[in-house]
Specification:
The chain is α+β, with helices and mostly antiparallel strands. The chain folds into two domains: 72-88 and 96-264, Glucose Permease (Domain IIA) (Distorted Sandwich), CATH 2.70.70; 273-318, Membrane-bound Lytic Murein Transglycosylase D, Chain A (Roll). 20% of the residues lie in helices and 25% in strands. The protein is built from five helices and 19 strands. The radius of gyration is 31 Å and the shape is globular. The relative contact order is 0.13.
Length: 320
């Protein structure tokens, strides 16, 4: 009798265990418990090791390799530069309009100076003076018409020195190249580069836009040597997207425009700004600031109004 009872209990327990296992096997994808191989997780994570995704980190952390550190010993063009600044666009402060030397730079060869046009599009504004309201302002680069989202390319091989947002340039990238030049690219809608990133001519560094002081989507492109701007059209033939020559000679003639800029600033200072003016129809503080060459921030403070507020025709506006 005891033997039969023991057998019944054993069968009852066995049937219960089998049913429980079957129930676990039939659980669907909504099961709250998921058992995974930790080694497979580590292998998958290794494939995306170079991407850091976090809403609290700066934009370049999405593309910058994890724990990236740039050794300034690897900064290019040591012959011409003795510092590596990732914040200040022109930290050098050289007066090159009086330089005595003549420097020959190699722009293209088979090793590390391959060239690619920075953008594909028509040049809408050249290097030089242009009208800005009722006054002239010097434009230190070439503007290339683009659509928002169009790719912008590194012109030569080098290393990204600056990638950030500024009030004037908007999203801006500055690259120091192996050949000794620095190039600046402004008004991006999105940056695809980070400080310390090595690039080759033709690498995409951002998407075109209209950020900063911009009146529409375009690329503002500058060429610099030791911080001072050079007319890009003396180096690049924009209609064909090619170099004018494989070498470029840097001398004081490249910077003679700085005398004109200096003279224009002195003339502007000598013209006394009126204390009050009467607003025109459709005026805003932005328009008045451009017309008289004064600060919008200062006008806002003096007149107690916002920059884009429409001003009634004939109203007195204080300038200083």
């Amino acid at each position: 009798m005891r033997l039969k009872l023991f057998i019944y209990i054993f069968l009852f327990i066995s049937i219960g265990l089998v049913n429980n296992l079957q129930a676990q096997d039939t659980e669907g994808p909504d099961s709250t418990e998921v058992f995974e191989d930790p080694e497979e997780d580590e292998e998958e994570a290794a494939e995306y090791d170079s991407v850091v995704v976090s809403s609290s980190e700066k934009y370049w952390d999405f593309i910058r390799p994890r724990n990236f550190m740039f050794d300034t010993a690897y900064a290019p063009a040591h012959l011409f530069y003795d510092s590596w600044d990732t914040i200040t666009i022109n930290p050098y402060k050289h007066d090159l309009k009086t330089m005595e030397d003549t420097i020959r730079l190699v722009l293209a060869d088979f090793d590390d100076c391959s060239f690619h046009p920075p953008a594909i599009g028509d040049v809408t504004s050249n290097f030089g003076f242009r009208n800005w309201g009722r006054r002239q302002k010097f434009h230190f680069g070439s503007d290339i018409r683009m659509e928002v989202g169009d790719p912008v390319y590194a012109a030569f091989e080098g290393v990204v020195r600056i990638a950030k947002r500024s009030s004037d340039y908007g999203y801006v990238v500055l690259i120091r190249h192996n050949n000794g030049l620095e190039t600046l690219y402004a008004h991006f809608s999105q940056l695809l580069a980070y400080p310390g990133q090595p690039v080759k001519g033709g690498n995409i560094i951002g998407l075109a836009g209209s950020t900063g002081r911009s009146t529409g989507p375009h690329l503002h492109f500058e060429v610099r040597f030791q911080g001072e701007k050079i007319d890009p059209a003396t180096i690049i033939h924009f209609p064909t997207g090619s170099l004018l020559n494989d070498t470029f000679q840097v001398d004081k003639g490249c910077f003679k425009h700085l005398y004109d800029v200096q003279a224009a600033k002195l003339r502007a200072k000598s013209i006394k700004t009126p204390k009050y003016i009467k607003a025109h129809k459709g005026d805003t503080l932005n328009k008045i600031a451009n017309r008289y060459g004064v600060s919008v921030k200062k006008l806002s403070k003096l007149n107690g109004m916002k920059a884009k507020t429409k001003i009634k025709k004939g109203r007195r506006v204080r300038l200083r």
